[in-house]
Specification:
Blueprint (H helix, E strand, L loop, with lengths): L3 E5 L6 E2 L15 H6 L8 E2 L3 H9 L3 E10 L2 H11 L4 E5 L7 H13 L8 E6 L2 H11 L2 E4 L7
Parallel strand pairs: 1-4, 1-6, 4-5, 6-7
Antiparallel strand pairs: 2-3
């Protein structure tokens, strides 16, 4: 029986990918070209403190764990998840050439779970470092949100 749903963003929340992240000169938007040019370095990312809670959650049979990320999950990302983070029950990620906002991407990916009978009475918590994504998802589903301050929440 699923009693909890834990939804984790990756970058800046449970994963530190700052070695391949930078903002544009304005300082408020991610430099997507730099990010894409360095995606092959994803296996060199490291874990942030909240990853310990994530690891406990994926071991709990009463907790359904979802990674909801605006990343495109490529081979190195999947290898990092399998080897260093641990596999969640489900991953929501951006597909190639998808330019929707991260908030909308996550809402649409999560929608099917909140319509399932098994999940109706489960308590859901969303961990996110982007305030706009956090508000979009939590307002849409009326769930608890936990803001995780980071240098990557753009």
């Amino acid at each position: 029986m699923i009693k909890e749903i834990k939804i984790y963003d990756m970058d800046g929340t449970i994963v530190d990918s700052t070695h391949r992240y930078k903002t544009l000169e304005c300082g408020t938007k991610i430099d997507l070209q730099f990010w894409r040019d360095n995606e092959y370095l994803a296996y060199n990312d490291s874990l942030l403190p909240l990853a310990e809670q994530y690891k406990l959650d994926i071991q709990n049979p009463e907790c359904y764990v979802i990674i909801a990320t605006a990343r495109i999950i490529r081979d190195e990302d999947m290898r990092f998840i399998k080897d260093k983070l641990g596999m969640p029950n489900h991953i929501i990620s951006r597909k190639e050439n998808d330019s929707r906002s991260g908030g909308l991407l996550k809402v649409l990916g999560l929608k099917k779970f909140f319509n399932l009978k098994n999940f109706k009475s489960a308590k859901a918590v969303f961990f996110e470092d982007n305030v706009n994504y956090l508000k979009t998802v939590c307002d849409y589903f009326n769930i608890e949100g936990v803001y995780i301050p980071s240098k990557q929440g753009h």
